[in-house]
Amino acid sequence: MSPAPYLRGCFQMPAGIRSARLSLTALGIYECEINGCAIGDDVFAPGWTDYRKRVQYHSYDVTAQLRTGENVLGVTLGDGWYCGYVGWRDRQNYGERPALLAELVVTLTDGSTIVYASNESWKVRKGPILENDLLMGESYDARLEMPGWSDGGFDDSSWDSVMTLPDPGIERNLSLGPSVRSHERLRPISELRNQESRIFDFGQNFAGRVRIKVRAREGVILKIRHAEVLAQDGSPYYENLRKARATDFYICRGGEEETWEPRFTFHGFRYAEIFGLEPSHKLEIEGIVLHSEMPGIGHFSCSNPLLNQLQRNIIWGQKSNFLEVPTDCPQRDERLGWTGDAQVFVRTACFNMDVSRFFHKWMRDIRDAQGPEGAVPAFVPDPRPLQSGSGRDGGPAWSDATIICPWTIYLCYGDRKILEDHYESMKQYVTCLLNECSRDFIRCHPELDKPTCFGDWLALDGGDELSGLTPHDLIGTAFLAYDLQIMRSIAAILGNDGDAAHFEACHESVIKAFRRRFISPDGVLTSTTQTAYVLVLRFGLLPSELRPAAVRELVRNIQNRDTHIGTGFVGTPYLLEVLESSGHLDLAYQLLEQETFPSWLFPVKNGATTIWERWDGWSPEKGFQDPKMNSFNHYAYGAVGEWMVRSVAGLELDPEQPGYRRVIFCPRPGGTLTWAEAALDSPQGRVAIRWELQEDGLLVDVTIPVGVEAILDVPPGFGEHPTPLGCGQTRFLLPFQK
Fold first, then answer.
1. Nearest to 715 by CA among 601, 585, 627, 613
2. Whole-angstrom Cα distance, residue 441 to residue 515?
3. pLDDT at 90 over 80
4. In angstroms, what CA-CA distances link 270 with 86, 181, 679?
């Protein structure tokens, strides 16, 4: 960990300024000031990209900040993702030190232009930020502050000259995705004091940092540690952070009240433990929530308060992990953009928040990470040195994010551009799967040289391995078929009829190969795991005459587990959908509302405020799971939110008219629920549905924007109603069938 350099550039400005625009980028992250005024409210700008290929820049209108005469541009640099700790690796993944590139373009009233750029005349020195790292934390000595350092009249004669660096030869692009920003402020709901520390509970697991106001004598050192949960003895549980120090230090300057918030770090936590406070010290603290700018657009609630808490947990998991890239978890030494987590959750993400720009940016990251043959790694950006793994195939259900995510963005937002922008990349990826990752149309074929596959990650189907018992080649071939099915649709949408025919032919070949390999002559699936049955049913891999038998086996498996889940990351997102479409809505609801381990509501019943990585991250009987991999803020299992919106509430889109140009209202009442509702600020306007069980039937209220076609899919057991529906707000009663 290293100090943050403070950079200072002075320039003279003539009178008659009409406009001024400042463009900034960094290898690392930056904060900028002009004449003592902060520029922009972006956090961790310019964001995380593959610095071997490109860096983003931000552009700001700074006309109001300039003045005639002396002006000062001050920039503080942090290590960020460029040369800090990333994942479980050591530092310096991309380079040794952060660097800045700045350009100020000023247009005068006479029409002339002045360009002022960062150059060898700038000065640099260390300041109060003694060390900074996104994973490890930040240390700040307030006694070393330099009042006025970014304004005129400041004496920088003791500062050093900057070192100029050669152009790294990478692309520079205007920032494509939404910036990370500070959003909410959380006040502690309780405080626990002991002899050594004070522990503050913010009541919510989140990604961000703390802001403190303290009054203490000069030189007092405050140590702030961050934890997600408490151990049984009431102490913060730090073991699951692994190598992440997740600790900030603040050295007080003394005297009056002082306020501090770290600038170049963040943590995943609910609890902040502060050491160094004495009884006479006064302290106020609040939690600052950080995530990428993604407006909330969706709402779901129902009559079961536990499901409502589950929905809140899903949203907070998304907030915590959609920070620059879709990370797996915000607390430990990882925070990588795992592709598998993103693709299983993307549909839920699209409902909760407007993530269109977020995924546009990340899809470009995927394209940058793609290997020369078309392979996509398991996490993106991939900070590993090129010779140690970048460009490798990430395996089925992970690297397939390069197909599934843009397709889902297209469906949810009607965004054709994301398909156009990445079509060649997707096509190259599928070609790689067929040529490099498959044999005889079987992906992850055992005869291939160590094919990558995480399996059904963390499945509870009796396997000792983390990847579960579902065969890797079954998972791989199932997702290959799914990819080809999607690519056939994308090619047709974009008018590439020849490609569409090719993908269709390959899809048929994969289906035939799958049936030869995984279906026995008597029609039995060779793997009996829940995930195996879910995949073959969801992806249409079985002949129609064999589907009833497969459904029976899936139901039997669930019932043999006392109506509990046995699936992992791969099978869980499709489980309830498959049960519903196979005529077992009642069983789907039983799983959804199951409160004992393993289930979605087991963590809720045990105090979770975000989605857990493991079904049993903690249990009363066994305590904490293996700390080597036990995040309490890991959004993948939150993919169930999709089914809650689409089937429980009944708000669905039509793939033939994407972006909710045609809305399908398809409520499926069940379980203990007496009412449910969902609303979405779609690209066409607000669409909403609410249903409530009455003595004489199902009372339904819908909201339909002007110009949107809406269709009612009446749930089984209720009478017919005219369809399609007209625009506006409509209420109707579906009577019980006699």
1. 585
2. 11
3. no
4. 22, 19, 29
Residue 541 has pLDDT above 80, yes or no: yes
Residue 310, CB-side half-sphere exposure with 13 Å CA sphere: 29
- How distant, in Å, are the alpha carbons of 27, 84, 129, 159, 464 from that of 125? 18, 19, 11, 5, 54
Tell me the pLDDT tens digit for each residue of 221-234.
999 999 999 999 99
CB atoms within 10 A of CB 416: 14
Cα separation, 377 vs 336, in Å, equals: 11
What would the two tokens of residue 251 be? 């050295």
Residue 677 annotated as catalytic: no
Active-site position among 334, 593, 642, 652 = 334
Which residue is listed with tokens 């460009």?
A: 391
In terms of DSSP bridges, do strands 123-126 and 5-13 run parallel, antiparallel, or are they unpaired? antiparallel
Catalytic position from the list 31, 613, 652, 677: 613
> On the CB side of 341, how many CA atoms lie within 13 Å of its CA?
26
Measured between alpha carbons, how far is 496 from 499 in angstroms, rounded to an integer? 5
Which residues contact residue 392 at a Cβ distance below 8 angstroms, ignoring those fewer than 6 apart?
371, 375, 377, 378, 452
Q: Tell me which amino acid residue 656 is.
A: E
At position 473, the amino acid (one-letter code) is D
**Structural element, H or E, at residue 422:** helix 416-435
Q: Please say if 613 is a catalytic residue.
A: yes
Q: Closest by alpha carbon to 727, among 710, 702, 704?
A: 704
Q: Which of 688, 599, 687, 580 is nearest to 643 (CA)?
A: 580
Q: What are phi and psi of 433, to 5 degrees?
A: -60, -45
Cα separations in angstroms, 290 against 49, 228, 619, 695: 19, 16, 29, 46
C-alpha dihedral over 326, 328, 329, 333, to 10 degrees? -110
Residue 387 backbone dihedrals phi, psi, to 5 degrees: -75, -10
The two structure tokens encoding residue 678: 């969902």
Classify 60 as helix, strand or coil.
strand
Q: What is the mean pLDDT of residues 319-324?
A: 98
C-alpha 732, offset from chain centre: 38
**How many Cα atoms sit within 13 Å of 589 on the Cβ side?**
15
Tell me the torsion sign for CA atoms 556, 557, 563, 567. Answer: negative
Residue carrying structure tokens 């931000």: 58
Residue 170 has pLDDT above 80, yes or no: yes
End-to-end CA distance of the chain: 72
Beta bridge partners of 662: 709
